[in-house]
Design brief:
The chain has four helices and no strands. It is mostly helical. It is globular, with a radius of gyration of 14 Å.
């Protein structure tokens, strides 16, 4: 079962990459909806991996990797010609990761 959970987590990471690089991502029509999407996506993925990995060191590694991924995606978006680089997206990603970890700490005691 653990392997299935890990595979689902990596599929979620793949979905984030796809949504971040597709020319026409889904759009919800309210101000800063994309920031909310970043926040929830990264928070959800971090929470998911916290369900699987309980060691603080492993969680820290995932948190850093997800934050680095959010930064990397912004640079890749700037190279596409149809997406844009936004620092606030990186901030939303990082805050989402931290929230996902915090919620896991509170709920999984």
């Amino acid at each position: 079962m653990r392997r299935v959970l890990i595979a689902i987590g990596w599929c979620l990471v793949g979905v984030i990459w796809w949504l971040s690089l597709t020319p026409q991502p889904p759009h919800v029509d309210f101000e800063n909806s994309d920031k909310v999407g970043h926040f929830l996506a990264y928070g959800g993925v971090m929470f998911w991996f916290c369900l699987i990995y309980r060691r603080p060191r492993t969680r820290l590694a995932y948190a850093l990797a997800l934050i680095a991924m959010g930064i990397a995606i912004e640079f890749v978006q700037s190279w596409t010609g149809y997406r844009s680089f936004e620092v606030y997206d990186m901030v939303a990603d990082a805050l989402g990761v931290l929230l996902g970890w915090a919620v896991a700490l509170l709920l999984l005691k």
